[in-house]
């Protein structure tokens, strides 16, 4: 009795009790031996006697024989025997299959009954598609997939075979059966495969399969959300394969966005250009700070009006971060943000002054002055800043808004004009003061004449504007010190005394004050006058001016001076108010006279007059003869050379000494000023100078020094 081996101990005990005492079998150990009934079972299975086979199996057969009985009974639709056999082997999968088969069979029988017929019996059963389907399903459950697929095909149920291989993820086998069937949608099979690839996380394969079935949108969505390895290449491939039509525009735009995200800017740009998505391309350039390409795109005539000018605001900010401030200012103006442009220039100016970069400060003040008088795009006379600067009147001091065609508030225009004038003044002051500041830097070259001229210019300019206010950062101590030393060295002793007197009013270091006092003591031995050759001469009225303008307060002038607004203070002539035009290289006074054409004259006409070649005779006799005959040199004013004094004309002619004379009358003798000069200085024939300009200059200097009178009888009393 081997209870542990699974032998029925109850039956063994019963047999042992049945043995008589003192019999041959007494005291014998009985063991139960199971004898399989497989052979009888096989015989009944061959005869398809499934009830007898089941009874024999109950006597004892191995598990494999139970499975064989269950499967064969199921194939013959003997569901009760098959179910009991599957219960014996505890195969729940087949039990569920039997339930499904039995339910479908009942539904099929109901159809036959309703049609007045019956299910085929006997040999016809092999041709029944439903029975073949059941057999194929049983084969599939057994693992015989190829046989099951063939049986499905015999049953004309290829869909079931494809579903089986699809469930098994044997896609190639499924495609083979799908190709042999006209009813199967190959794309649907690919969709199922793509869906399975999604389930297993094979995103790249899923995207490729979605593209192959004509669903690129789903493929792009998967690549964009999952971003598998090498996804940009897949997106580029999809974008290249798609046609650039309206139906694919949204998909291509998403491809371009993903490529831009992957830093594939060249591919994204190609897509944007093919789709004519200029705004999106501009956003790409802006996000990458590729401003040169962005500006080029905006300047393209084909894209005119497609972009909001506010896009140049971040461009200006980027330029400012790159320390390209001039370009940033231009970008702000192009964006129509004059307030931002002015604010930046003011900040740059302040920084330059604080950092003692006075030349830069002067440049930014000059830009501010220009910005103040520029009409903006919103103003009636403003033009497109992206193509051409708006018209700027050369001399704003001479312009009345109504006459100039500016539809602006006169009060506002007057404020702009005053601010423009002040900014220009500060620009000149800071630029000039940079030369003074350089003198206090190590290893800086120095020129006494240049130092004298620039310091003199600064003193006169600072005294003549903004009520004598001094811009921030400008040191009067340094200016006056430079002026005093250079004036003393050049012989302008009177000016040097003035500079030292002003220095006494300022606070300065003790060692510098001691040096200054020594210079003042040495200066006491010098004459109280300035060297005459240092005195500036006005090239407009030929008046010799003092070095220091005595008119330190602004005031009116009898004439309406276009260039000076009636002021005679500052660095200008004390007689006519004409400003001294200085070279900002060495601040020497240039022989230039400022003039402004009439407002009703076109710029081209003014340029033509300036470029007109003036005719002149080779000798004085020809000049006099032509003057008397009325056919002399061409008058600058366009007249006929008439000597009538009421018709005053500027006429250019040459003297016997080779000099050029610009006179108001055809005959120089008729000009009162020239006549007086000749009367006072003597003619060339009497031994006087043949150069009328030198005669006039000598006479003016003599009058300035007090050595000459206006009495013509005292001619020749010298210069």
UniProtKB/TrEMBL annotation:
<protein>
    <recommendedName>
        <fullName>Intraflagellar transport protein 122 homolog TPR domain-containing protein</fullName>
    </recommendedName>
</protein>
<feature type="compositionally biased region" description="Basic and acidic residues">
    <location>
        <begin position="642"/>
        <end position="652"/>
    </location>
</feature>
<dbReference type="GO" id="GO:0035721">
    <property type="term" value="P:intraciliary retrograde transport"/>
</dbReference>
<dbReference type="InterPro" id="IPR039857">
    <property type="entry name" value="Ift122/121"/>
</dbReference>
<feature type="domain" description="Intraflagellar transport protein 122 homolog TPR">
    <location>
        <begin position="37"/>
        <end position="379"/>
    </location>
</feature>
<feature type="region of interest" description="Disordered">
    <location>
        <begin position="615"/>
        <end position="667"/>
    </location>
</feature>
<dbReference type="GO" id="GO:0061512">
    <property type="term" value="P:protein localization to cilium"/>
</dbReference>
<dbReference type="InterPro" id="IPR011990">
    <property type="entry name" value="TPR-like_helical_dom_sf"/>
</dbReference>
<dbReference type="InterPro" id="IPR057411">
    <property type="entry name" value="TPR_IFT122"/>
</dbReference>
<dbReference type="GO" id="GO:1905515">
    <property type="term" value="P:non-motile cilium assembly"/>
</dbReference>
<dbReference type="GO" id="GO:0030991">
    <property type="term" value="C:intraciliary transport particle A"/>
</dbReference>
<keyword id="KW-0853">WD repeat</keyword>
<dbReference type="GO" id="GO:0097730">
    <property type="term" value="C:non-motile cilium"/>
</dbReference>
<keyword id="KW-0677">Repeat</keyword>
<dbReference type="Pfam" id="PF25295">
    <property type="entry name" value="TPR_IFT122"/>
</dbReference>
């Amino acid at each position: 009795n081997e209870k542990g081996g699974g032998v029925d101990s109850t039956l063994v005990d019963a047999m042992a009790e049945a043995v008589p005492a003192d019999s041959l079998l007494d005291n014998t150990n009985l063991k139960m031996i199971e004898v399989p009934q497989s052979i009888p079972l096989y015989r009944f299975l061959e005869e398809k006697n499934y009830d007898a086979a089941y009874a024999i199996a109950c006597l004892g057969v191995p598990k494999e024989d139970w499975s064989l009985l269950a499967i064969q009974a199921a194939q013959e639709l003997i569901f009760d025997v098959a179910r009991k056999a599957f219960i014996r082997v505890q195969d729940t999968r087949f039990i569920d299959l039997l339930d499904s088969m039995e339910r479908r069979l009942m539904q099929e029988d109901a159809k036959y009954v309703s049609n007045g017929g019956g299910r085929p019996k006997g040999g016809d059963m092999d041709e029944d598609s439903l029975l073949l389907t059941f057999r194929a399903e049983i084969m599939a459950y057994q693992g015989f997939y190829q046989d099951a697929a063939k049986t499905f095909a015999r049953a004309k149920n290829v869909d079931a075979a494809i579903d089986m291989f699809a469930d098994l993820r044997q896609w190639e086998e499924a495609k083979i059966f799908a190709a042999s069937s006209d009813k199967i949608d190959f794309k649907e099979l690919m969709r199922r495969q793509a869906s399975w690839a999604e389930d297993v996380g094979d995103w790249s394969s899923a995207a490729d399969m979605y593209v192959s079935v004509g669903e690129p949108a789903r493929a792009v969505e998967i690549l964009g959300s999952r971003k598998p390895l090498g996804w940009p290449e897949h997106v580029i491939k999809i974008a290249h394969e798609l046609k650039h039509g309206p139906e694919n525009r949204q998909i291509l735009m998403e491809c371009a966005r993903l490529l831009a995200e992957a830093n594939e800017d060249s591919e994204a740009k190609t897509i944007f250009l093919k789709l004519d998505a200029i705004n999106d391309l501009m956003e790409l350039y802006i996000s990458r700070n590729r401003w040169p390409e962005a500006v080029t795109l905006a300047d393209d005539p084909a894209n005119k009006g497609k972009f909001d000018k506010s896009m140049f605001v971040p461009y200006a900010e980027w330029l400012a971060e790159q320390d390209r401030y001039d370009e940033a200012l231009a970008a702000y103006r192009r964006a129509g943000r004059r307030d931002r442009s002015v604010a930046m220039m003011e900040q740059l100016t302040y920084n330059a002054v604080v950092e003692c970069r006075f030349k830069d400060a002067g440049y930014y003040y000059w830009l501010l002055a220009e910005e103040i008088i520029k009409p903006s795009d919103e103003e009636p006379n403003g033009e497109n800043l992206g193509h051409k600067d708006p018209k700027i009147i050369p001399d704003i001091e001479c312009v009345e808004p109504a006459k100039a065609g500016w539809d602006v508030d006169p009060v506002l225009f007057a404020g702009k004009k005053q601010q423009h004038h002040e900014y220009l003044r500060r620009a000149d002051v800071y630029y000039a003061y940079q030369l003074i500041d350089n003198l206090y830097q190590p290893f800086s070259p120095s020129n006494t004449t240049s130092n004298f001229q620039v310091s003199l210019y600064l003193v006169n300019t600072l005294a003549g504007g903004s009520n004598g206010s001094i811009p921030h950062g400008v040191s009067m101590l340094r200016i006056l010190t430079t002026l005093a030393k250079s004036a003393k060295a050049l012989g302008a002793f009177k000016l040097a005394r003035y500079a030292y007197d002003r220095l006494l009013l300022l606070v300065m270091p003790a060692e510098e004050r001691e040096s200054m006092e020594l210079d003042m003591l040495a200066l006491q031995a010098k004459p109280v006058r300035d060297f005459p050759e240092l005195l500036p001469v006005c090239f407009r009225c030929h008046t010799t001016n003092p070095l220091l303008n005595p008119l330190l307060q602004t005031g009116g002038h009898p004439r309406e001076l276009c260039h000076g607004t009636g002021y005679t203070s500052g660095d200008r002539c004390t007689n006519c108010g004409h400003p001294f035009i200085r070279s900002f290289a060495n601040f020497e006074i240039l022989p230039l006279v400022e003039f402004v054409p009439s407002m009703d004259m076109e710029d081209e006409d003014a340029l033509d007059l300036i470029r007109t070649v003036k005719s002149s005779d080779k000798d004085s006799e020809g000049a006099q003869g032509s003057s008397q005959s009325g056919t002399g040199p061409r008058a600058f004013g366009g007249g006929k050379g008439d000597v009538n004094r009421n018709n005053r004309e500027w006429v250019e002619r040459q003297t016997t000494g080779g000099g050029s004379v610009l006179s108001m009358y055809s005959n120089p003798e008729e000009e009162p000023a020239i006549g007086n000069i000749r009367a006072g200085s003597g003619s060339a024939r009497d031994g006087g100078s043949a150069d009328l300009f030198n005669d006039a200059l000598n006479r003016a200097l003599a009058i300035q020094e007090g050595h000459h009178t206006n009495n013509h009888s005292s001619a020749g009393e010298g210069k």
